[in-house]
Each structure stands twice: as C-alpha cells, then as structure tokens.
Amino acid sequence: MINQYKEQLKEHNLKLTDKRLKLIEVLAGDEKYMSAKEIQSKLADYFPTISYDTIYRNLHTLTDIGVFEQTSLDQEMHYKIACVTHHHHHFICERCGVTQVVEYCPVEKWQNELGDVKLNSHKVELYGYCEKCA
Amino acid sequence: MINQYKEQLKEHNLKLTDKRLKLIEVLAGDEKYMSAKEIQSKLADYFPTISYDTIYRNLHTLTDIGVFEQTSLDQEMHYKIACVTHHHHHFICERCGVTQVVEYCPVEKWQNELGDVKLNSHKVELYGYCEKCA
DNA sequence: TCCTAATTCGTAATCATTCTGATTAAACTA
DNA sequence: TAGTTTAATCAGAATGATTACGAATTAGGA
Ligand SMILES: [Mn+2]
Ligand SMILES: [Mn+2]
Ligand SMILES: [Zn+2]
Ligand SMILES: [Zn+2]
C-alpha cells in the first residue's frame, strides 16, 4: 500500500526521499488527524534533526497531490492520510484526533437548496469523544 | 435589535462598553465571516487606537455567550453575528466571506450512523463563490 | 560517475493570537 | 453626585504556528 503512494509521487515528478516516505508511513499508520508538532515528534525517532520547513513543505505538497487531507483544529492545521475510496466524511475525536467514517452525505440536497450558486467544496465534520477518550 | 444584544450582555454580567457595542454593530451590520484584521479596520473608524487585545477578548467573550459564531478560514479565525432562530448551516463565499443560509441538516441521521458515540457538535460548511464574486 | 534541479537544513522572519502590568471606566452603593 | 469596586482597555512584549531564505545536500537521469 505504500507503493501506491510512491506511484503518486512519481506521477507528479516528486522525488522519493527518505523523509517523504517516512512521513507517509507515519500518517498512513494511524487513521487520525495530527498536528505538525505531533508529526515531527514521530519523525524525530528516525530523523532527529529534521527541519520544520521539510515537514510543512511536504505536508503541503502531499496534500496538494491528494495523499493527505487536512483540517483546522484548535487554530492548528492537522493532517491525515487521505481516504481514496468513495466520498464520505468523518467523526473526529476532540481529544485524540482519531477518526471514524461517516457515510451519509446529502451534498445533492444542499446543491438543490442553493440553486444557482456553484458549490466548489464542502466540509462536514462531526465532533465528540471516541470510546477510548469518552 | 441591538437591544437584544444589550440584554445578553446584562444577563452575563458583562459591561456595556462603547467598544463592545460598536463591535456588535459592525458584525450585525454585515452577514459575513470577518477576520480580526477586517474587524479592527472597521472599528478603526471609530476607535483608531483600539487594542487587538480588546478585539480578540471581546470576540471570544461574545462568542462564548452566543452573540457571535466563529469558523476557521485560511488558518485565521473568522467571526459573524450568530444566527439565533433555528438550527441551520451556511454556504460561505470563499472570496468575500458572505454567507447564505442552508436549511437542510441531517444531524439525526449522522447520530444514527455513529451509534454509541456521543456527538458534541458538528460543522457543515459549503464553499463556493457568491453571485457577486462568481 | 557526473550534472542539475529538487530537496533539505538551520535559522531568521512573519503573522495571528495571547499575555502582562498599568490605567481607565462601567456599574453599583451611599 | 461622589466613592468604591472590579471589569475592561491599553500599549507593547511574548508566544507559537507557519513561512521564507540562502547554503548545503541528494535523487534521478544522462
Ligand atoms: Mn475516511
Ligand atoms: Mn446542523
Ligand atoms: Zn479519542
Ligand atoms: Zn462573494
């Protein structure tokens, strides 16, 4: 499954660096939203001196090509590995960031209600505490 | 209608200051999400030296008591006057921040789908360009 | 192996937001 | 109305996330 991400990098002419691969590994290994700080602390096990510039740059780059998805929580951007299957949304634990899939999305009803206005995107996020954190 | 906000301040033992009243006036006068910077530039007409501390403090305070509502756009918190009628969401213009009401909200379907997990809150935001900005 | 553009590094800068300690003023009381 | 109390404001420093920059390194192709 990591190979699929290597593909995506190649498709966009991005080099396969050790930092990028480990970054993907970290996010792919935990289905939750993580802050840059959390991510750097996980990467620090492998690259103790990795630059924040590298982390932020790659979070942006990989979000741009659809490997990650992002959301703003508590004034900080958080990232998770992207869901590539079908359109859906997430429940997000406000304590630990862990996510749970939410299938139902009435985007066509919303588009109907809006009429002419063109919908570029939409955000649906459900918040609460996961079973562990409750 | 400004009187209703004065009530709310009194109910929470908050003083009626000139800054607070003008802040409410500014947000109530334009049904859109505004950043702290935008807000301070509007307030500057009346209070050229108003402190950012005053702006941020009051944005928080008034959001806490339900006078304003907030959302994070582009890494910046944005505020608008709260909708006090019934539960609903908004379409938000990505250029100018103007909002349009979206009535349909399937929160009970989502709660059903989630089962046990307790839902604390939810965010639904539809993005695009308003007629003016399109 | 060599070249070159992309990537990373270390660090400084930026920008939104928060904090602090001193000053002001709203609201209550006499 | 004057006095008292305490919340609110102010100016400016501090914080914390994010971005920028010039120099050094490296992936990937020739
Ligand atoms: Mn998902
Ligand atoms: Mn709703
Ligand atoms: Zn949790
Ligand atoms: Zn607009």
Automatic annotation (TrEMBL), chains A, B:
Record GO cellular component, one term: cytoplasm
Entry-linked InterPro entries: FUR (IPR002481), Fur_C (IPR043135), WH-like_DNA-bd_sf (IPR036388), WH_DNA-bd_sf (IPR036390)
One Pfam short name: FUR
Subcellular location: Cytoplasm
Binding positions (Fe cation): H87, E108, H122
Keyword set includes Transcription: yes
Main function: Acts as a global negative controlling element, employing Fe(2+) as a cofactor to bind the operator of the repressed genes.
Protein name as annotated: Ferric uptake regulation protein
Taxonomic source organism: Aliicoccus persicus
